[in-house]
DNA sequence: ATACCTGATTGATCTGAGTCCATGCGCCCA
DNA sequence: TGGGCGCATGGACTCAGATCAATCAGGTAT
């Protein structure tokens, strides 16, 4: 992107935070006006169904964009909640869309981000075993963290087990048991929220069924 | 949209078809160059996993757009296959994206379509009972058909039971059994591929959990 | 220190839906 | 007009994962 483009983008950015764990970035039903890029920390997006059960849709690491699924419709279809200390950049959507008409590169990037999220959402919809889901979760976290410069083999899960379970559509007990078994089988090492991947190839193989697209 | 916009759009449209049942609109892995709007008939999109099992991602009725999930990446992540006689309009994506920089209304529409697909893909990912899934499927078909001017209460399923089952991540037998029970309970009437919704409110209630967003 | 609370783990039991198999029903084509 | 093939239905059994019910950390306030 050229100089003036970066300048334009810089002008419409609004820095937000730091947010405390549990703080809302936006709430389900809020009127939609902006997307946001995570700068530091982790954000979860979730919806509350009719019976009051939370449904976690995703976890968002630094560098990732939240709020895209709200473009269609006046309101955010989900809430975004900080899992730890979070800082982010807020972009007015009307403004960034307008800018995108002048910057084909930016438009293309937005299309790609949206398209990528479709593929991502489709992943969880397959019918996969608990082992596959958890292996895929670990591998995906590892890849995304590695892409941000963190260690791919050893990292910290910033969310509680219940959130992982909810996100993967499993019972917390199942997550616990599978992680335990993976450890007994020498594939990983877990200590609370700290995870180390010991047999990446084995995990990749399991995860393949889910992650492939 | 203004006159010249429509003209520009008209120029880059390419009419395709009629396609026979089973014919491919595009194949998983084909290099991505165009999106398409269904003009008549039904198209299913599906992926084949490592073990060779088909995974159906969606059914697309007249007026709906296919190929959006391919924007991110060089290739289509799924195949699109005609279920009956299908006609469609093909739009070169580079061209329509370029046009969108000149037509903010078109850009906005594309953003909305992409965003909507994210929400749609998220639906199937929830953990729902077979009853909820099938009720949601029937209600959603009814709504989409009604939006195209067809009857909301009585319609033809254009896909075999196996495809419905695959799409909903259920066994074909389960689909069969649930449809049978819904009929016994007086909620629907089924004769082969013909369906009539008799107790819409009951189905809506069941479907709510899935469809709500 | 000690009590307490929240989240994680573990074990025992239950169940919805998958699997396997047999049968039924159209529908097409020879 | 009858045989065959794909799709649909129904019954019996099985199993992965949910649910129920105790513990078990590991922090935090007292």
Please give a quick description of this structure.
Two copies of one chain form a homodimer. With 213 residues, chain A is an alpha+beta fold. Chain A is built from seven helices and eleven strands.
H/I helix tally of chain A: 7
- DSSP summary, beta strand count of chain A: 11
* Radius of gyration of chain A over all CA atoms, rounded: 18 Å
The major β-sheet of chain A equals: 4 strands, antiparallel
Task: Explain what this protein looks like in three dimensions.
The structure is a homodimer of 213-residue chains. Chain A is an alpha+beta fold and 213 residues long. In chain A, 44% of the residues lie in helices and 25% in strands. The first copy, chain A, has seven helices and eleven strands. Chain A has a four-stranded antiparallel β-sheet. In chain A, strand 10 and strand 11 (194-197) form a beta hairpin. Chain A is globular. The model of chain A has no long low-confidence stretch (mean pLDDT 91). Chain A binds a DNA duplex (30 and 30 nucleotides) through residues 129-130, 160-162, 170-177, 180, 192.
């Amino acid at each position: 992107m050229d100089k003036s483009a970066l300048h334009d983008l810089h002008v419409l950015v609004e820095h937000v935070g730091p947010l405390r764990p549990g703080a809302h970035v936006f709430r389900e039903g809020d009127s939609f006006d902006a997307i946001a890029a995570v700068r530091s920390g982790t954000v979860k997006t979730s919806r509350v169904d009719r019976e009051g059960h939370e449904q976690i849709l995703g976890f968002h690491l630094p560098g990732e964009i939240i709020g895209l699924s709200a473009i269609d419709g006046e309101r955010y279809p989900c809430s975004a909640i900080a899992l730890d200390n979070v800082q982010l950049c807020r972009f007015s959507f009307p403004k960034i869309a307008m800018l995108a008409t002048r910057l084909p590169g930016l438009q293309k990037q937005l299309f790609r981000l949206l398209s990528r999220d479709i593929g991502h959402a489709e992943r969880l919809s397959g019918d996969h075993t608990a082992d596959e889901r958890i292996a895929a979760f670990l591998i995906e976290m590892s890849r995304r963290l590695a892409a941000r410069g963190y260690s791919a083999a050893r990292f910290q899960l910033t969310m509680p087990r219940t959130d992982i379970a909810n996100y993967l559509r499993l019972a917390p007990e199942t997550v616990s048991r599978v992680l335990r078994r993976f450890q007994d089988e020498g594939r990983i090492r877990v200590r609370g929220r700290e995870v180390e991947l010991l047999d990446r190839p084995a995990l990749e193989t399991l995860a393949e069924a889910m992650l492939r697209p």
